[in-house]
Write a structure and sequence with these properties.
single chain, about 100 residues, alpha+beta, seven-stranded mixed β-sheet, about 20% helix
């Protein structure tokens, strides 16, 4: 699912929602697998479910997000390692809060 992020401090990014975690979103932006902590977000728009209105998302909204993300089951360490390797990364890029 497509996602548009507005970050605290003025940054912006667009990409694909890969997974939803308790403390962050995992997105593919500019061909980079990126961990975006909820505290780093100013606003988020999801193409299929609308705007993120609170961080972390309410349980029902988080469940909706998971269902439409690329990896609704989450990212196991093995799956994450393969995803990172496919994008030429050794670790997640982490957005500072």
């Amino acid at each position: 699912m497509a996602v548009a992020l507005a970050l605290r401090g003025g940054g912006r990014a667009q990409g694909e929602l890969l997974a939803v975690q308790d403390t962050a979103l995992v997105v593919l932006a500019r061909d980079t697998v990126t961990l975006v902590p909820y505290g780093a977000l100013e606003a988020v728009q999801f193409s299929q479910v609308g705007d993120l209105r609170e961080t972390p998302p309410a349980p029902d909204f988080a469940r909706q997000l998971r269902l439409v993300s690329r990896f609704p089951q989450g990212l196991t360490p093995d799956l994450l390692a393969r995803l990172l390797a496919a994008h030429g990364q050794s670790a997640l890029k982490v957005v500072a809060r």
